[in-house]
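Need a sequence for this fold. Nothing fancy.
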């Protein structure tokens, strides 16, 4: 994927600010220094397009491309997280939230996740715990469980950092499925 995306001409990326980017893959492969120019390129392309909205192929509530300014801000928040810079992560997450519409549910959850993790990185453990609890409770029954899993995992980490190992253990334990009672 990274090789394929690297072969896409920059002019093609500039014409389509909502097209897939290799940023996430590069960050995952610890090439965060290569992500920043791609985000800048996407921001410039979006500005040059006159802010033309991207027609997502899924419902806007679960799209991360329908609101490109917020998506780019959350990507910058993620870069700050990878660098261990909680204050910058929070600043980009706040910027993302200023671009949100009421129907940007998943993207807003991602931005709130970054606010909480920014608090964690900055040592504000109580605020981080509250924020992660809120995010973890937002989508448990939806198809978008990845943000719930991510927030829950980090919630356990915050609880460990607080020295609350019992709470962390309960956070990490899978829920016990309820048995349905059979009526006679």
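Here you go.
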């Amino acid at each position: 994927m990274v090789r394929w995306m690297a072969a896409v001409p920059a002019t093609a990326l500039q014409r389509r600010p909502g097209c897939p980017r290799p940023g996430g893959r590069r960050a995952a492969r610890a090439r965060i220094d290569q992500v920043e120019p791609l985000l800048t390129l996407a921001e410039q392309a979006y500005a040059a397009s006159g802010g033309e909205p991207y027609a997502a192929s899924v419902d806007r509530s679960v799209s991360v491309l329908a609101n490109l300014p917020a998506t780019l801000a959350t990507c910058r928040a993620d870069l700050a997280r990878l660098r261990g810079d909680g204050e910058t992560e929070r600043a980009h997450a706040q910027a993302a939230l200023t671009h949100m519409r009421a129907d940007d549910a998943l993207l807003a959850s991602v931005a709130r996740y970054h606010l909480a993790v920014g608090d964690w990185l900055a040592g504000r453990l109580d605020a981080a715990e509250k924020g992660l609890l809120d995010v973890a409770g937002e989508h448990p029954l939806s198809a978008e469980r990845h943000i719930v899993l991510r927030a829950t995992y980090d919630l356990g980490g915050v609880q460990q950092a607080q020295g609350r190992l019992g709470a962390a253990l309960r956070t990490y334990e899978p829920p016990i499925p309820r048995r349905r009672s059979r009526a006679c």
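For context: Residues 89 and 170 are 28 Å apart (CA to CA).
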